[in-house]
Amino acid sequence: MRRALVALGAGLGLLGSTVVSAPAQAADVVTDPLASTVATAQQVAAFWLADGAANLKNATPYAWDTAVRVYVPPPSSPGGTPGYVPPVPGPLSSKGKLPTTSGKVFFVGADGQPHWCSGTAMQSAYLNVVATAGHCVYDTQSIAVTLDKWVFVPGYSEGTTPWGLYVGKQASAHYDFDVYEDFDRDYAFVNVYNGVVSSSSGVLTDSGRLGDSVGGQGLTYNQPTNRSVDVFGYPAGPNPDGTRPYTGQTLEWSYGKTFNAMAPAMKGEDLIGVDSSFTGEGSLGSSWLYQYSNGNRSGYLNGITISVSDTDGDNRYDTSVSPYFDGELYGVYSAAKNLWTGAIA
Questions:
Q1: CA 277, CA 280: separation in Å to the nearest integer?
Q2: 3-state DSSP call for residue 66?
Q3: So where are the chain's domains?
């Protein structure tokens, strides 16, 4: 297993990671650089925005571990006191009641090709945090630690970047996912630089902080299941029967109640599910928002899609799956929420 040798020692710095202490159940947090310098970040932005954003338009949905068999155990009570981080409302979207905080995360995979998942902008001290699935940031298919050329495009729609492109600077994840690929901890929080837009001559212009442009969703953890959530993402893949209900080009929405779930095939023993027709490819990283308000387009992140399942055997996906959000997730978020990043243009 990747990085397994450091599990018994203190030499994480040799691999470019740092384990930091965090509140709420003392989560083990691993941080890793993405584009750690301004020069590198500029090169990443140019890769995606060059030639009329050709690499953004030609990227394909990430197809790794998109479907899993789910078991539903008896309901259980949360193990800690529920906590809340309030959202920062953003501008009203021109696309009905959809949040401006949702978008696509783009990266180059282990196959050397551009891919994308879903992601969402979060509340934080410097309004610069994106939440997504851990395996949409960390490379679980090769010896590399993180996926290459990682960026976030909020409001992505049919090749456009309405609020700019945000290059990832640093990722924070749970140690158990990074080392053991424990999918109960399949989440990551990425700090991004200020957004950029590109002129016809290729010159990058600063478009400001992510949260100033689109707002930031709140966070809640240690919540009981059987709570209603709104799911937002960019599903694109086929159902098992071959039908393709979504294109992946526009933000989609579904709604349902959460329930306890297990997926032994992916080492998922403490997961939650929600009724959703989203297909797997493209929807990885979708946000599950509790108490979502249509008025201000904000709520509390309480789940992140890491896989989907066909639970009734009709060859169509009917369930999305997320890690359960507990105090250890809050610890990972806390490691990211106070990191300043700055501008690259």
A1: 9
A2: coil
A3: 17-337
Residue 227 CB partners (closer than 8 Å, separation 6+): 257, 258, 290, 302
CA distances in angstroms from 129 to 197, 254, 318, listed in the order given: 19, 24, 30
280-298 pLDDT, tens digit per residue, is: 999 999 999 999 998 889 9
Report the C-alpha dihedral over residues 323, 150, 265, 234, rounded to 10 degrees.
70
Q: Specify the pLDDT at position 158.
A: 83
216 DSSP assignment: B
Residue type, 315: N
Bridge partners of residue 122, in order along the sequence: 129, 217
Could you tell me which residues come within 8 angstroms of residue 85 by beta carbon, excluding any fewer than 6 positions away?
Answer: 123, 218, 219, 220, 300, 333
Residue with tokens 């400001």: 208
Which residue in the block uniquely carries the two structure tokens 């639970």? 311
pLDDT at 159: 83
* 230 vs 124: CA distance, rounded Å: 21
Tokens of 286: 């979708």
